[in-house]
Amino acid sequence: AQSVSQHNHHVILSEAASLELGCNYSYGGTVNLFWYVQYPGQHLQLLLKYFSGDPLVKGIKGFEAEFIKSKFSFNLRKPSVQWSDTAEYFCAVKRGGYQKVTFGIGTKLQVIP
Amino acid sequence: KAGVTQTPRYLIKTRGQQVTLSCSPISGHRSVSWYQQTPGQGLQFLFEYFSETQRNKGNFPGRFSGRQFSNSRSEMNVSTLELGDSALYLCASSHPKGGTDTQYFGPGTRLTVL
Predict the structure, then answer these.
(1) In chain A, which residue's Cα lies nearest the Cα of B107?
(2) What ranges make up the beta strands (E) of chain A?
(3) CA of A1, closest CA in chain B: separation in Å?
(4) pLDDT for residue A1
(5) Does B113 reach chain A within 8 Å, measured CB to CB?
(6) DSSP annotation string for B49-108
């Protein structure tokens, strides 16, 4: 069965620090990759997605992610975090076609001013 | 466009009861997926409906069921509630193109089972 691993469950950073959240998946075929974010009290919303093409994907609010096929990874990065980035971040993977989306367990990011 | 709406937002039930949750997708979206979100478990996929047909199903017991109507609105039902069913139930809709569609989530229904 397909699985998605997020290595860090709780991350605490100071403002202006750099962020990298790890995500690995187990399926070897064609995949669509997503990062979703859930700000406190808000709905889950899409941060960025990869379907094909350039493996470096840019999303909203200065986030980016790199798809490394050989490592089955899709890590999320941001060079300088802000207090407003405090949220829970979910990596998600969908196999090609009309397959279900599998989510990771989530990473809670706390940014200290 | 209005977003995904879910009703009710909060529910308190007792063990053994049953519950029905409702989801109205974004206008024009024909795919609706349901997830159970709990601390430490993340989002667990329940099922997906597309054009009134269940297209995918997660690993939940038969007590969890769903359906979709011709207007794409969806309901999920949980029978014989257990304490462990306490969770946030999320609904997500996506564009009919399928395959590479982005999911748009509703606010969720917070179910508490006493």
Answers:
(1) A43
(2) 4-5, 10-14, 19-21, 24-25, 31-38, 44-50, 56-58, 64-68, 73-78, 87-95, 101-103, 107-112
(3) 11
(4) 63
(5) no
(6) EETTEEEEE-S--TTEEEEE-TTS-EEEEE-S--GGG-EEEEEEEE-TT-SSPPEEE---
Residues B91 and B23 sit within 8 Å (Cβ to Cβ) = yes
In tens, the pLDDT along B61-101 reads 999 999 999 999 999 999 999 999 999 999 999 986 655 57
pLDDT along chain A (113 residues), means of 10: 86 97 90 94 93 93 95 96 97 83 94 95
Q: Is B13 helix (H, G, I), strand (E, B) or coil?
A: strand
Give the sign of the dihedral formed by CA A84, CA A86, CA A87, CA A93: positive
Chain A CB within 8 Å of residue B41 CB = yes
Looking at the partner chain, which of B92, B99, B104 has a beta carbon nearest the beta carbon of A97?
Answer: B99
Hey, which residues 92-111 in chain B have their CB within 8 Å of chain A?
A: 92, 98-100, 102-108
Measured CA angle at A74 (ends B48, B109), to 5 deg: 35
In chain A, which residues have their Cβ closer than 8 Å to the Cβ of B10?
Answer: none
Q: Is-contact B21 B89, C-beta < 8 A? A: yes
Under 8 Å CB-to-CB from B24, ≥6 apart: which residues?
B4, B5, B6, B73
